[in-house]
């Protein structure tokens, strides 16, 4: 720890000690420093919105009584009177505490015992100060909760990123923009729910703990169920259970919930994240491209009130139609190669080496293609782009393209160089599905920890018959990043995963 940090910690410790002394004095005077229930009738935003146009004279003529509560975020004492700002869940409003109004005893308590960070209740009436600020003149107040730790002094918010994520409660107190991101996140999810509900989708819940992890290529977290005496896996995707519901007769289903993947942490990845997955019977991946455009446009209009948004210093235009390329066509366009260089495994491997893409001897043709795309193409796709027709050998749950069975009816939606959605026409042939599971099993035995497990019950479900179906997964966290202009996934997850403090 540097000298400045040590001095800062020393100052904080001294402030905590002073506040603890105040806490004991408050208790010894017979006052409960952690008060009882309080009926809060007015919010800061409600008062400011309703009376923002009221003049000084109007407020004097027609008295407006108010009862509110919040955390003190600023405090200025002038001897016989004090100004403070209190913050609630909607915003801030100024209060004025005057000795002549609240009385000597109350005012002395406010002056000596109240600190920034404390929660108080206030009863009073509205007036305008000499600077014309709408303010509550307190006729009474009470301490609701004593704050023992000082808030950051600089009201520009926390600057230490690790502290911001680790102590999100402080981040939310001092950074109004952070609160706004999570309010907007809530609105995004509500808008998507309403959109899908109106389209006839049924929201469902499927297991978080599964005996067989499936629905994605990812390394799972393993836990153990003592009563059953078996290992269980935190789900990497809800896909196979949702498609069982399609088999069962629900024609449109969706789930917004957590997935867990035992992988790296980065600005785009958190081990625990939120996904929307939805499935639509009698549809294919072309239908989902159209539906996805419609959903994103609707959500952006509701949340951002526009289709041209700023993200990471770039303008993203969500106005449809969005561009569409097959995987091969995108590689040709953005690496300036020709289609013949992608015609077979050997030529594609040669191209990968020429482009400086790291591939392994055991990689399949499809794997080499996607490695080239991931390394050299994806980051160039800034505007919304559907990439279609992925190789069959890396898409074990998708339906083959009838004219080219080495590829499947699948798309990924790329915005600003990152995947936002993944979708395909679902494989509903049980024999083909079994063969692909068996192929994945061989890859797992060869050391691929992310390969699919064999799921006999899912194959059995398909043997009962699943109608032609299209399904999609959308990363909610990444969508929130896009619509709130946040560079890191940690900025849109309230409590991102971190190493324990030392």
In a nutshell, what does this entry contain?
This protein is an alpha+beta fold. It has helices at 3-28, 44-51, 56-61, 99-102, 104-113, 161-166, 168-174, 176-198, 239-247, 285-304, 327-335, 345-354, 365-377, 430-445, 456-463, 476-484, and strands at residues 65-77, 81-87, 92-98, 119-128, 134-145, 202-203, 209-210, 221-225, 230-234, 252-260, 272-281, 308-311, 314-317, 323-326, 385-391, 400-401, 404-415, 418-425, 469-475. It has 2 domains: 3-151, Nucleic acid-binding proteins (OB fold (Dihydrolipoamide Acetyltransferase, E2P), Beta Barrel), CATH 2.40.50; 174-322 and 383-491, BirA Bifunctional Protein, domain 2 (2-Layer Sandwich).
What are the salient characteristics of this protein?
single chain; 502 residues; alpha+beta; OB fold (Dihydrolipoamide Acetyltransferase, E2P); BirA Bifunctional Protein, domain 2; nine-stranded mixed β-sheet; five-stranded mixed beta barrel; 16 helices; 37% helix
What does this structure look like?
With 502 residues, the protein is an alpha+beta fold. It folds into 2 domains: 3-151, OB fold (Dihydrolipoamide Acetyltransferase, E2P), CATH 2.40.50; 174-322 and 383-491, BirA Bifunctional Protein, domain 2, CATH 3.30.930.10. The chain is 37% helix and 26% strand. It is built from 16 helices and 19 strands. The chain has helices spanning 3-28, 44-51, 56-61, 99-102, 104-113, 161-166, 168-174, 176-198, 239-247, 285-304, 327-335, 345-354, 365-377, 430-445, 456-463, 476-484; strands at residues 65-77, 81-87, 92-98, 119-128, 134-145, 202-203, 209-210, 221-225, 230-234, 252-260, 272-281, 308-311, 314-317, 323-326, 385-391, 400-401, 404-415, 418-425, 469-475. Strands 6, 10, 11, 14, 15, 16, 17, 18 and 19 form a 9-stranded mixed beta sheet that branches. Strand 16 and strand 17 form a beta hairpin. Helix 7 (168-174) packs across helix 8 (176-198), helix 8 packs across helix 10 and helix 11 (327-335) packs across helix 13.
